[in-house]
């Protein structure tokens, strides 16, 4: 499970309780953030390769979800890529496995032709739903205004 803010103790406890009830055996709680000042430089004239990961402190990792691509022998973007920060709040999988999953989720926006979105589709979709729901007027609450309705 991932989200764009850190998991609180109450959230972790609640999710663990629900997972136990539903007999979910493995849980990974990962928080993602666009906010990082970490930048990597690669020898040569192109940015780091897509998928490059830097371990910051054993819990926080910088992951280049956009970057140079060996197959194209270039960087297909117009701007210098910034890494995505991910924090392993409570995980059972290795950070490398989690990074692979995050990278896979950045390729799943089938409404665009990009193969390397910056953020995973799950976060992107949640932000899109939130952007629409904030314009629902108070007097029109018959429209489902709960994010869970759109999941």
Molecular structure report:
The structure is a single chain. The chain is globular, with a radius of gyration of 18 Å. The chain has one domain: 2-Layer Sandwich (Nucleotidyltransferase, domain 5). The longest helix is centred in the N-terminal third of the chain and has 13 residues, at 9-21. The protein has a five-stranded mixed β-sheet with strand order 1-2-5-4-3, covered by helices on one side. Helices cover 25% and strands 14% of the residues. With 151 residues, it is of the alpha+beta class. Helix 1 links the parallel strand 1 and strand 2. The protein starts with a strand and ends in an 18-residue tail after the last helix.
Keywords:
5-stranded mixed β-sheet; 151 residues; 3 helices
* Rg measurement, Å: 18 Å
Helix content: 10-25%
Strand content: 5-15%
List the helices and strands in order. EHEEEEHH
Number of helices: 3
| Classification by helices and strands | alpha+beta
* CATH A-level architecture: 2-Layer Sandwich
- Spatial arrangement of strands, main beta sheet: 1-2-5-4-3
CATH class: Alpha Beta
How would a crystallographer describe the biggest sheet?
5 strands, mixed
* CA(first)-CA(last) distance: 14 Å
CATH topology: Nucleotidyltransferase, domain 5
* Poorly predicted sequence stretches spanning 5 or more consecutive residues: none
CATH superfamily: Ribonuclease H-like superfamily/Ribonuclease H
Mean pLDDT: 85
């Amino acid at each position: 499970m991932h989200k764009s803010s850190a998991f609180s103790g109450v959230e972790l406890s609640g999710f663990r309780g629900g997972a136990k009830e539903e007999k979910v055996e493995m849980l990974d709680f990962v928080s993602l953030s666009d906010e990082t000042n970490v930048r990597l430089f690669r020898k040569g004239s192109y940015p780091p390769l897509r998928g490059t990961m830097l371990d910051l402190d054993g819990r926080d990792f910088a992951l280049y979800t956009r970057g140079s691509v060996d197959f194209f022998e270039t960087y297909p973007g117009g701007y210098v890529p910034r890494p995505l920060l991910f924090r392993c709040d409570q995980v059972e999988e290795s950070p490398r496995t989690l990074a692979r999953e995050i990278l896979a989720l950045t390729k799943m926006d089938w409404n665009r032709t990009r193969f390397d979105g910056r953020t995973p589709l799950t976060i992107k979709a949640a932000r899109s739903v939130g952007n629409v729901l904030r314009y629902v007027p108070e007097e029109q609450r018959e429209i489902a205004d709960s994010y869970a309705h759109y999941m």
